[in-house]
Amino acid sequence: MSAMWMLSIWLACGARRAPERTPKDLALEALDAGYAQRTDQEALDANIQASLDLLATAPTDPDFLARTARAFSARAITRKARTDKITDLETARSYGLLCLAGNTGYSVRIEQAGGQVLRAATKQLQKRDVPCMEQTLIPWVRWLELRGPAGLVDVNAIGHLAERLLALQPGGWVGPWSKAMVLSLPQADARGPLESTEQLFGQAIQAQPKLAEIHLDYIKFQLPYAGEQEVSDALDAFSGTHPPRGDGPWALENTVARSEAEGTTVEPLMKRVWPAPR
Predict the structure, then answer these.
(1) Angle at the Cα of 69 (from 179 to 169), degrees rounded to 5?
(2) pTM, whole model, 2 decimals?
(3) pLDDT (tens digit, 9 = 90+) per residue, 56-83?
(4) Which residue intervals of 113-250 are DSSP H helices?
(5) Where are the domains of the chain?
(6) Is 215 helix (H, G, I), strand (E, B) or coil?
(7) How far apart are CA 175 and CA 254, in angstroms?
(8) Sign of the CA dihedral with 146 first, then 148, 150, and 156 last
(9) Nearest alpha-carbon partner for 67 in 33, 41, 101
(10) Given 1, 62, 96, 233, which is the most exposed site by the fewest CB atoms within 10 A?
C-alpha cells in the first residue's frame, strides 16, 4: 500500500470527521465565547444584545432561544434590586418556555391543559430538548425563590419539568438541583423527606462541584435540619471552601455566592425552614 494512497484515505476520512462549520455554528461559537467572559452586568448586556440580534434572524431557533434565556438568567445574578432580578428571571423563563414550545408534542399538550405544565406534556420532551429545559428551570427556580408564596402556583410545573430533566440527563446538575429546591423552599408547601432532598442536593453538587451557589443553597435550605451550629460552621467556612482560584467558568456566580454567604445569618434560616418536612 503506497504512502500516497494512505495519505489520500486519511485526508478523505479527516474531511468527513470535520465538516465545514456553518454560519450558525460560528455565530453560536461567538455567543458562547462572549458568555464565557461574563464578569459583570456590562459584559452580559453585550451578550444579551448579541443573542437578541441572532434571535431576530430566526425567532424560533431553539439554540438561539436557549442562549438568550441563559444570558438574561445570568444577568439577574448581577442585579442589585429585587425587582430587576425578578424582571430578568421572568424574561429568561419566557425565552426558555418558547424554546420548549418548539417540541410539538409538548406544546399541544400544554394547550390542551389550558397552559398548565403537566406530566403528560413533559413526557414528550426528549434529549434534544435538554438545553431548553435547563435554561427554563434555572431562572424559574430562582424566580420562585424570590417571589415566595406568590409563586406557589408554579411549584408543580417546575417539579414536573425537573423530574423529566432528571430522567433525560441523570448526570447533570440542573435537574436534581431544581427538584431539591422545589422540595426545600418553605413557601412551596411540598417539602419532601430529608433523605430525598439530601440526595438530590448531593447529586447536583457531585455533578457540578465548582458551582458554589449549589453549596450555598444546600446550606440555606437543607442544612438547618442538621442544627444551628452546623449552619453557622458551614457559613463561616464557605469562602475558604470555595476560594476564587477554584472558580473556573463560574467566577461570576461564585463571587455573588460568596458575597451572599458573608451577609447571611443563621437565625432567619432556622426560622424559614423549620418545621421539618413531612
Answers:
(1) 40
(2) 0.88
(3) 999 999 999 999 999 999 999 999 999 9
(4) 119-122, 130-147, 155-168, 174-184, 194-207, 212-221, 228-241
(5) 37-169, 191-278
(6) helix
(7) 20
(8) positive
(9) 33
(10) 1
For the chain, the 3-state helix, strand and coil shares in percent, each to the nearest 5, are: 80, 0, 20
CATH topology of domain 37-169: 1.25.40
Determine the pLDDT at residue 159.
Answer: 93
Among the listed residues 75, 189, 80, the one whose alpha carbon sits nearest the alpha carbon of residue 138: 75
Question: How does the average pLDDT of the chain come out, rounded?
Answer: 88
Q: Which residue has the cell 428571571?
A: 89
HSE-CB at 206 with a 13 A cutoff on CA atoms is 10
278 residues of the chain, pLDDT tens digit each: 443 443 344 345 554 555 788 999 999 999 999 999 998 999 999 999 999 999 999 999 999 999 999 999 999 999 999 999 999 999 999 999 999 999 999 999 999 999 889 999 999 999 999 999 999 999 999 999 998 777 778 889 999 999 999 999 999 999 999 999 999 886 555 555 677 899 999 999 999 999 999 999 999 999 998 899 999 999 999 988 888 887 889 999 999 999 999 999 999 998 866 454 44
In angstroms, the CA 255 to CA 231 distance is 20
What are the Cα distances from residue 203, in Å, to 162, 165, 190, 218?
13, 13, 20, 11
Q: What does the alpha-carbon distance between residue 234 and residue 213 come to, in Å, rounded to a whole number?
A: 13
- Taking the C-alpha atoms of residue 262 and residue 242, their distance in angstroms, rounded to an integer, is 12
Length of the chain: 278
With a CB cutoff of 8 Å and minimum separation 6, the contacts of 208 are 173, 214
